[in-house]
Amino acid sequence: MALRVGLEQSAYEALEATSEVARAAKLKSFSPNARIVQEGDVESPDMSVKAIVKHVLVIFLLYDAAMHLLVEDAVVAETQIDQNAAVTLNYGCYPNDFYLLDYGFVVTSNPYDQVELSYDVFLYESEPDIFCYDPDLVTAFQVSLGGPDIVDGRLLAALRVLLAADPETVGKHDLKTLMSLGTEAPLGPTVEASALRTVLALCAIALQHFHTKIMDDQAVLKGEPPLTTQLAVQFRLQKKLMLVDIMQNLSRRIKTLAPEKSTA
Question: Residues in domain Rubisco LSMT substrate-binding (predicted)?
Fold first, then answer.
C-alpha cells in the first residue's frame, strides 16, 4: 500500500476560510479517504485498510511512549480502497507544533500555524506546577498571532479599548465586533492604526527573540542536514515566515485605513 503521509499543498491552499461554515465546506471538498485513530479495535476485520503508524524518530520516542501507552495509531479507510492505491490522509487543521510533536513533520505555509505570546513570564516561572496541570489556565495567560484570525481577538479587543479616547464609543460595540479583524475600523481609523501598529511591534519583538535570521535557517536547509536538524530548522523557519506575513498583512491594512472606513 502506498501511503501519502503528508498534507497536500492544494488542500491547504483551499483552507483560507474566515468562518466555521466556510472552513467546514472546504474541508468537505478535500474528501480524504482515510483517517487516523488512536482508539478502538485496530485488529477488527471490518477495517478495509489498516496500517500501524510507526514513529521512527528518536527525538520523539519518549513523547510517543507517554502518549500512546494504552492505544495504537492506525490509518483507517473511510471508503473501499483498491490494493496499492494511494491513501490521502487528513491530519486536521492544527499549528505546526502539533504536527511536529505528534507526527514528526512540518507543514510549509501552514495557514493554521501560530505563535503564542505570554502575558507574564515571571508568573509561569513562579508557579510552574499549576500551569503544567491546568491547560485552560495557560490559555488564559496567552494570546496568539497567526492562524485564520491573524490576530487573537482578545488581544485586538484589548488594544482597541485601551487606545480609545471615548468610552461611549466603545460601549456602542459588542465584544464580537471589537475582537474581529475585518475591513472596518469599529473605533475609528486612528485607534485602529494604533492598535495594528502595536501588534506589528509585538511581531517584531517575537522575531528578535529568535537566535538566527531567516537567511541563516535557509542556508542550513540547503546544506542537507540530518533529519532531526532539518525538522527543527523548518519548524523555526516557518514561525519566522508566518510573523513576516502577518506584519505585511497588517501594514497593508494600516495603509488602507481612511475616515470612511470607520463605523464609530
Answer: 139-242
